[in-house]
Amino acid sequence: MPSFATHIVGGEVFYTWLGEGATAGTGKYKVTLRLFRACNQACGAGSGIACLPDSALVNVFAAKAPFAQVVTLRMRMTGNQPLTLETYPACIAYKPVICYEMRTYTTEADLAYTAGGYIIAYQNCCRAQSVNINNVGGSSNGYPGSTFDCFLPGTDTLALPQHNSSAAFRVKDTVLICSRAPFSLDFGATDADGDSLSYVFTGAFDGGEFTASFDERPAGPPEYRIVSYKSELGFSGGGPMGEKVAIDPRTGLISGESPTPGRYVLSVVATEWRGGIAIAAHRKDFMVRVEDCNPPEAILEPEYLNCQDSTLVFTNQSASPLINSYYWSFGTVGGNTSVEPQPVFTFPDTGQFTVRLIINRNQQCTDTTTTLVKIYPGFTPAIGIKGICVLHPYDFADASEIAFGNAVAWTWRLGDDSAADDSSLLPRVTYQYPHAGDKQISLKVTSSMGCTGTATHVLHVREKPTVDLPFRDTTICSTDTIQLRVNNRNVLYQWQPQYNINNTVIASPAVWPRVTQAWYTINIDEDRCVSTDSVLVNVITRYPVSLPADTVVCAGDDFPLHAVSDAQRFEWSPATAVNNATLQSPLGRIQQSLTLRVTANPGRCPSQAVIAVKAVPYPVVSLLADTVVCYGHTGWLQGATNGAFFNWWPVNTLLYANTLRPLAGPATSTWYRFTATDTIGCPNPTIDSVFVRVVPRVIAFAGNDTTVVANQPLQLTATGATYYAWAPSTGLSNSLVYNPVVKLPAGTDSVVYTLTATTPEGCFATDQLVVRVFNTPPDLLVPTAFTPDNNGLNDYFHPIAAGISNLDFFRIYSRWGQLLYETTDIKARGWDGMHKGQPQAPGTYVFVVQATDYKGNKIQRKGTVVLIR
């Protein structure tokens, strides 16, 4: 990729007549070039973007073909001016930085007065952001370039002694153009000679060839090619921002509604008129930015249509953060309104309603829009299909339900992949498929109210109808009658042969063949699609039946039975020994041994078989009741059985697990399963369980050791169980509650209280609490030094509270007044010599502590503490 590219955003060339030249027949002209680039974009080596040059080359050509080159002018830079947008509109959420660098280049030259005049031109290879220009495509080398020119008239146009200075476009502050919003942009010019000016959009000129070193090259001769406008998007040289943007031919003011965000190349020609004659022209070429300013807007779809029900969800399509409020009116007789950002509204009737949205109502940056809502519920597209098989056409019809209006347009897709066109625009279609298979049918329906929907259906196209026979092979007794059956409906039936059959044209005729095998054929005709199938009726004189060998079962258990036979009916006895005495394979259940008999086809052609079933009882098991043990203790289990074998499970928490009386010591509540088996015929075990509930470990807590002053009431609080006992009872208000109050008289040194906490099951634990008594008034005792070396001794610095009910604050400061530690928790461990994770240096630190004693008095202490490491 080229190393320097995409930097020019606009420019112009103009001239000023300064007087007669140094040689007779010449005039002295000041030629000026202006170039523009985005000033907030890096340029130079390594950026891939060229800076504006420090000097420029401008070519002067004869204005008539073959446009001979007259002179190349090297122009020095005489100005470098930033153009920055300072003032933004109030009602935009996005305020981009818009800044351009404008460099001015000038030189003076003597040019001979000729009849045809001159064309003065500057060329550059590359426009800025060439790949992102919305209205212009790339050139042959991939970069649309720039050419800026102006016309200096000759004596054929402006006879001597008349002279001309070209118009110059005014340099204005830059402007912010917001997408899809009205805007105006001043492209007006001034003329030093007082000539009148007219303005028109014109095609921008492409530029010169790209060079990797970006050497300045003078412009080539006219005529110059126009950049490639994206006409497919509606852009052209005469309409560079689309049909909604125009230029005032008298003032040069560009205005209208801006297009979508992006970059747009504009080229405007200012023509000078003197005495009603156009004498000269020059162009300004500039690439403007259109931004999505995200203003607060009320934007809705032009129309909403609901053909299913009467409820719609409305959403403003603008997500600007400057939208503070919403006001919706739904156009109903009742004047329904809403202030929700996304209201859900059910219209009370069908028809058309005008919905209005006002954002920021009665505020700055308000906006209003309306939309038309059409409510025509009861629109359900549906397909009606008649047809059976590939032999005959299918009939497709619109079966849609339309409550309002009527269907006016149809589009069918009939799912025939083999056809070049299987579509239709008629309400009813007849179509014959060449091949069987599944066809995806769709119908798009449009109503006169504008409702549109699509119905789909998977059609199973068959070669022929399927004959639905519940059986195709059966057996009957030689003296029986059997009813044949075909489950197809709405078809024509034809049974053959007409042998011992009561009706050949019904779905379920009765037959009574008297031969060994009789075939009956059924033909069905479903809408002229015909299919055939057959049923074989075997005729026998009796139905053999057999049962498995005699067996042993557990008394009361279900066990399977199965009679091996082709018979149609069965009868078991005794009937109470099976769950259904008429099944071929019932379930048996007996409490005592017996013989079961089955009769196959009872009544006609019967046969019988028997089976002896021995019932063996389960082993008898009994266990002691569920029990409770304390955590860490054990309990005895007790089992009994008449079985030959038994076992307990789980055994990992049992002692003597191979006996009927094991010792259980589980850590948590556990079910113990007792299983007994026997050797007398019933292989299944008898299982019972006993539950051992373990009372969780009792953790008695009497509280932390504490200090009080003489006669200070101290509230004790115990936890851990349900019942509590304190000993000794010295100074206690009640020794059998969890929260007694203790008050110790002067002269008492300390008392050690032992707490016993007991559960309702009798499980208990103990804890001790030491209450030390200060025979002084309430006070805060503060150590003078501490050693935070993590050896467990004197690692924390904290006050010792005597008679204190609340710690107001405890603060540690450095010698320079920096707060290092602070707490209001009287139970806190204290300062560990750290600050923000860093150990503090050995030395002296300042503390301030304040507390409230049990009488409500404030106690404050200040001083220093030495940190020793």
Automatic annotation (TrEMBL):
InterPro entries: Ig-like_fold (IPR013783), PKD/Chitinase_dom (IPR022409), PKD_dom (IPR000601), PKD_dom_sf (IPR035986), T9SS_type_B (IPR026341). Residues 316-373, 405-461 form the PKD domain. SMART domains: PKD. Gene3D superfamilies: Immunoglobulins. This is PKD domain-containing protein. It comes from Filimonas zeae.
